């Protein structure tokens, strides 16, 4: 069975599992990583007011496939109506990892919002793998962290992240070709 087919079959059972875990354990739906970046699961419509008003979210980086968001989260137009810009970087769940181009696009987006002192919500379905990969690259770029330092930093705030070999290889590749950006360091 291909990864894309498996991700579609497993979507609703694993989404409900994630909702259950957020209700019966200490697992949070989202976690603030720093002043500008929040790592989380699908920004369900029930979270809109909190994300916009309390968390100052003005940017959304979605690393989901279209079928994962239909009816559950705002469309780009609905986000825009409440002053939130969204970029979609389609990545297959379980077996997929964001491409280096997608990572760079996400970091450029985060950087632009950071300079405006806005928060960016980076998500996939569970906020554990695809989105955690992008947030780790953000930390590598912003602080000059090694891949494992970035993972450890995130894990201290969101212990249930789950980066597998493909994602760790992506972090290594990004780290190999990255330099700390002045705009991320405040210089």
Automatic annotation (TrEMBL):
It is an enzyme of class 3 (hydrolase). Residues 29-180 form the Tyrosine-protein phosphatase domain. Keywords: Hydrolase, Lipid biosynthesis, Lipid metabolism, Membrane, Phospholipid biosynthesis, Phospholipid metabolism, Protein phosphatase. Its EC number is 3.1.3.27. It is found in: Membrane. One of its GO terms (cellular component) is cytoplasm. InterPro entries: Dual-sp_phosphatase_cat-dom, Prot-tyrosine_phosphatase-like, PTPMT1, PTPMT1-like, Tyr_Pase_AS, Tyr_Pase_cat, Tyr_Pase_dom, TYR_PHOSPHATASE_DUAL_dom. The keyword Lipid biosynthesis applies. Its main location: membrane. Gene3D superfamilies: Protein tyrosine phosphatase superfamily. This is Phosphatidylglycerophosphatase and protein-tyrosine phosphatase 1. It comes from Pinctada imbricata (Atlantic pearl-oyster).
């Amino acid at each position: 069975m291909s990864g894309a087919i498996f991700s579609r079959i497993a979507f609703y059972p694993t989404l409900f599992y994630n909702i259950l875990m957020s209700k019966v354990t200490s697992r949070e739906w989202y976690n603030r990583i720093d002043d500008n970046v929040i790592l989380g699961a699908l920004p369900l419509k029930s979270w809109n007011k909190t994300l916009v008003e309390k968390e100052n979210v003005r940017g959304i980086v979605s690393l989901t496939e279209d079928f994962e968001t239909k009816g559950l989260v705002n469309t780009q137009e609905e986000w825009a109506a409440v002053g939130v810009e969204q970029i979609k970087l389609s990545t297959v769940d379980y077996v997929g990892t964001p491409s280096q181009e997608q990572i760079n696009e996400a970091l450029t987006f985060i950087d632009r919002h950071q300079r405006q002192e806005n928060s960016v919500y980076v998500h996939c379905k569970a906020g554990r793998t695809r989105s955690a990969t992008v947030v780790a690259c953000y930390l590598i770029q912003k602080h000059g962290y090694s891949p494992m330092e970035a993972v450890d930093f995130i894990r201290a705030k969101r212990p249930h992240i789950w980066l597998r070999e493909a994602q760790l290889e992506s972090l290594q590749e990004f780290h190999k070709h990255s330099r700390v950006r002045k705009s991320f360091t405040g210089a």
